[in-house]
Amino acid sequence: xxxxxxIKQMSDKELKNQLLLSQSIFFLLSIILSFIFFDHLFxxxxxxxxxxxxxxxxxxxxxxxxxxxxxxLDKTVPKSWxxxxxxxxxxxxxxxxxxxxxxxxxxxxxxxFLFRGVIQVTFGYIFASSxxxxxxxxxxxxxxxxLFIIITSFLIGYIFEVTQNLFVPIIFHFLxxxxxxxxxxxxx
Length: 188
Description:
mainly alpha; 0% strand
């Protein structure tokens, strides 16, 4: 059975719980891999810096540009080009703003800890960004969605390459998911 069909059969609560479970696995995996790949836990904590300038320029401003592009695409291209099987709509449409905030925060933290904080630091930018695309499997059969996830993944990886600050891709990822989640919720 296809992923979209499975998700349509789930209640909103079941879907939210499955999403949080999968993200918990990513988070746990990032912790386990950190102990394997880093000599000292301090090495991993050195990836965090509360640099407001980097956060605002690379995290906030860049995410807002990406969100605007996605909204323009949503309003201009045929709906079938952006259809992920209704998964994003199912995830966000009936959630409260508080739940969308929590989902976006959990996803941003768990995925960026794993893909940037561990995989990119250990195996490099290209490998981490490519793996991030593959994990988002539901986009692989839709050319526009695939292009968008490739651009997003490599952009997040590049932002981390430039800043070496894990807070920045987390903020970027959170804002994209949260604001687009709100957009999906409010869209008629």
